[in-house]
Amino acid sequence: MILTKLKLENFKKYSSFEISFDLGLIGIIGKNGSGKSTIFEAILFALYGELRNKGDKEVVRNANASQKDIVSVELEFEIGESLYKIIREFRGKTLSANAKLYKNEELITTGAKEVTTAISNLTKMSKDAFMHTLFASQKELTSLSNSKPEDRKKMIRKLLGLEKIDFVEKELIEKSRELKREIDAFKEVLLSSEDITIKKENIVEQTVQKEEFLKEIDKQSLVLEELNQKVSTIKQELELFTKTKEQKQSLKARCELLTNTINSHQKTQEKLQNELNTLYTKQEELKGLQTIKQEYINLHETLKEQDKLKEYSLRKDGLLLEQKELREQYTKAKDSIKVLEFETKEHLELVEKEKELDKSIEKYKQLLTNKELDEKRVLQEIAGEEKLIADIKKKIENITTLGKESNCPTCTRPLLDEYDSVIFSLEQIVLNTQNTKIDFSKEQLANIKDEKEKLEELQKAHIKEHFEISKKINLIENKKRDLQVQKEHFEKVTQKGVKNKEELAKLEIYSYDKNLHEELLLKQKELKTKYEYILSLETMLKRVDTIKEELEASQHNQDKYNLELLQKDLEYKAINYDEVKHQEKAKEFDEVQKQKDSLVTLINDLKVKIATIEGQIKTILESLQNNETQLKKVQTKKDDLNDYEKIKINLAEFKTKLNSKVAPRISDIASNMFAQITKGKYQHIEVSNEFDFYIYDEGKKYPIERFSGGEIDLANLVLRIAISKTLSELSGANSVEFLAFDEVFGSQDDTRRMEILEAFHTIKEQYRQIFLISHEMEIKEMFERVVEV
């Protein structure tokens, strides 16, 4: 794999960025925080859809981008003769992922997960393997030699992916222990052979007893059937007795009810006849009082006419009194209108004068505003000149303090012989400014203030006059409203007087006699008691017909009930019912029912015993079946345990073989590179099976810690490259042809840096692209190609 181009949009630090990659030794140079490492984070994200740390998804969008802006990473690379391009995007508030993979500009895969799978197949590496194989930092290089042996071993095994084997081995051991514990636990719940034999014999015994109970149930069921038939026959006979008894009791109750009803009708008829005789007597009395009734009616009509005449007389007196009051209001309103019309005649003239004063006041207000602006302008001019004088005085003071060696405040050259003339010139500027510009401005300011005071006096006089006129206008407008009210009132009084006069003319034709009216009322009072008694008699006599009808209806109903009583009495006497036989039959039914209930209880008890036996048999069978199931599970777990033990043995053999190949291969690759870099000074680097490092010097083996810092750095570098190359060989990823190192120079001096760069130049034949990331700007001249960020 060779990287060719990277394009970023809104990715972390970059809002928009594009870079093309060449072959050879390439330096990625930039200050701390400039985004150097972000370039390779973007490459990792493009290939595998993940950042270096998975939890960083929320910070992937550029800080200046909105939630609507797309985060996009586009990477182009070559494998063999084919050109590939990946486009990965985050969209929306939730940063939804999407991806596309092109081969020779043809779309071959879409979808974030699908593209990641395709890349893993192409590179034959997972994300972690890709990072461990192709990326290294200064911290990682120094850790190779500086770490404790156990920490170094863990780090290298992690780089090589061997920790996964350790994890699997640990899981196998734990799983084997768990299976052994489970097998031991099963032994405590499994049945012994003796328990199984006892349970099977118990099933045979329970089955025999169940058969005996079933035979007894059949025998007793036949007896129960006979009793059921007998109970049914006796029950039918009892129902007949009960029905006959209820029928006779019902007829007896009806006869008693009819007798009481007939007696009640007889009493009602006597009462109605007495009331009817009394009404006949009142009817004769009413005939003699008819003349008094007619006299009272005629008198009532006459009094109604007198009431109407009295009403007309009272209305006439009221209208005469109201006319008198209206004449007084008419005269008073007419005088008020005349006075108010005189007092409001100046209204229009005053309104016009008020408008003229409004214009004058507004004119003075504008003139005063202009004067205030002039005043501010002159004050600003004076302040500017005074500031200029203060600055010049400060310059004079500074020049005086420094002496003739000071610089000119205008051209900044040394004053020397011009010292006195410069000070004199500056003093003249101060004097001229004080005597001419400032004095002239102050004279202008005094004139403006005098004119402003005169304008303010004129404005106050006009405002005062305007206030007085406004008061008069308000007073006149109030009186005009009063005038309108008085006119409306005058009109109403006039209309009301005319209307009353017309009504009085109509009432003149009516005459009312008070004495006659009182005599008629007295006579009505005398006749009223007799009239009311007549009315009560008439009301009472209206019941005569009703009472006659009620009397006839009662007599008719009594005849009907007498006939029904005779019929019901004959039916009652015709029913044949024997109470003694009824009681004997009920007693016989109870005895048979008791026999039946006892037999049912016996049969139910037998059924309960059978159900209990069946439950016991079912429990025993389930126990035996469960034991069989547990035996099968135990055997399965024993089989699994044997499999795990075999896998552990094979895995241990695999680890031994792998270690015997990995360490020598790393030693071989590192030794060739180290000899080439050191120009044959050191021929061999040994990597033990425990991943301890040794360097051979003149045929003798020494620990890596014995050598100088520069030699250790070079050794760490070739060891890291050897580990990467070994990991590539193990994974089969020989198509990846680049390496990337982040800040591997550290705080090295120039000599060490040159040695490291020389090492990279030596190995670049094995890798077509080598990227070195550094913030050291001064080393950029050492690279074949440089990318500055």
UniProtKB/TrEMBL annotation:
Q: Which SUPFAM superfamilies match?
A: P-loop containing nucleoside triphosphate hydrolases, Rad50 coiled-coil Zn hook
UniProt KW keywords: Coiled coil
- Spell out the InterPro entries in the cross-references: P-loop_NTPase (IPR027417), RecF/RecN/SMC_N (IPR003395)
The chain's coiled-coil residues are: 169-370, 431-496, 537-564
> According to the lineage, what is the superkingdom?
Bacteria
Q: Which residues form the RecF/RecN/SMC N-terminal domain?
A: 3-83
* Name of the protein in its database record: Chromosome segregation protein SMC
